[in-house]
Amino acid sequence: MQLTNRAKKLEKKPMTLAERAYLPAIFQGLSITMRHFFMKKATVRYPEEVRPFSNVFRGLHVLKRDEQGRERCTACGLCAVACPAEAITMVAGERKKGEEGLYREEKYAISYEINMLRCIFCGLCEEACPKAAVYLQPDKMAPPRFERDEFIYGKDRLVEPVSPDERSIRGIQLTPEQADTLRSKLQSA
Amino acid sequence: MIELPALGWQSIVIFVVFALSLLIATYCTYAERVIAAFLQDRVGPDRAGPYGLLQPLADAVKMFTKEEFFPGGANKALFVFGPCLAMITALMSSAVIPFGNNMSFGNNAFFLQGIEVNIGMLWVFGVVSLGVYGVMIGGWASNNKFSLLGAIRAASQNISYELAMGMALIAVLMISGTLSLRDITLQQSVAGEWHFWNIVKQPLGFIIFLVCAFAETNRTPFDLPECETELVGGYHTEYSSMKLGLYLFSEYVNIFVVSAVMSVLYFGGFNFPFQYELRDWFVSSQGWELASAQNLITLLGTVGLFLKIFAFIFFFMWIRWTLPRFRYDQLMRLGWTILIPLAVFNILLTGGLILFGVI
Fold this sequence. Notes:
The complex is a heterodimer. Chain A is 24% helix and 15% strand. Chain A has helices spanning 17-20, 23-37, 78-82, 124-128, 155-158, 176-188, and strands at residues 61-63, 88-94, 107-115, 134-136, 152-153, 168-169, 172-173.
């Protein structure tokens, strides 16, 4: 039975003298390895050198604010429904008077938690969101931690920060010095 | 040569050679890893120190702090003696290798060589073949089937390849007529004559010697004594801590010594092309004294010899990361049915060439 048209018929012939002498084959092998000696290395020296993420990389979630700094999420629960890993839980609440500057819609998420141990970073929550609130950032990922409960990201770590002082990188709060450098960078830009 | 300072000089040379062979063996571990990495498109250890140059130090600390383990039912004395013997024999053989020509200070002339004996080649062979006892005793004392198998393999492999190696050597001795490594070196370069290194006269003998050298040092493709795919770790399965370190170390010292022997026997030792012309140029054009010009040439020759040795060490590692291991029956067939007849043929050929005055 023919499985593929690339199959090569092999005949077992007695070896020629050159083949039996080993040496030509050894030199061939040596030349191959020597070629590799001078080739470009595949290694990425990690802490000094970071492999760039793909443009479509799906990393750590962020809950976006609108252009006026109000939370976009309206706690509709579509992301939680769409989530195949059941990683998202939320509690909805009604916006009070005087909170119009904080929340965009009348309904908002009092708590919004994503369990990063359950999350498979498929991005279905992002697709399901009708308010363009939840996004998977292409440049950040959930860092390793020691305790399980530290992987449950609440609103404190998910909502996009308003000011540089609150801005977090990979879910870690910045030190005052880091915040300062970030602020000066933002001002110069 | 004056007696007393010569003895002091010899001990200095011996000490330097001892330190150098240990240093080179240490950095062989690093070189092996880096070369392996480069041949596989990686970069190798680069964390400890600049370019990972302190890696051997880190490895040594690791080796020393590991648990000393003695397997149950092992012969303790022999178990310790095995790696010691392997190391001692590996270090002993470098004593007779001429690392340089003579140096002269005033009226005293010294050789850059531990001991100059007229049976240097025999000494190297005797000591190197003793080295297999280290492996055998270690494998036997471990009270482990795999270790014993590895030891038996080592013994039979070394005996088989020593025959071909010795016969390849006989052809060199037929040309040189001496067993002294220094004389063999000096014969490969004569002032005022167009003189070739022994590799030109003995290409076949060199290939036989090279293959046997791989087998004698238990390097891939002949590393069956420690064949990890079949025998766990071979003769050093049960070894841990610095006792294992000594075994691994002695392998690198052996490579260093065998590389040095091959450089001396076939690649002119401390000679390098146009050395006499260079010396005469220093004397005639630069107005140097003959003695100081000779000293400079000697030092350059030593550097040259080490470059040859490093080239061989690189070749050993290059081969290791290119060729797969032989099967045991293939190893034996290669040794007994190919290399030994070839070596005998080489002796006949050399004899014929000498008879008709070609070499």
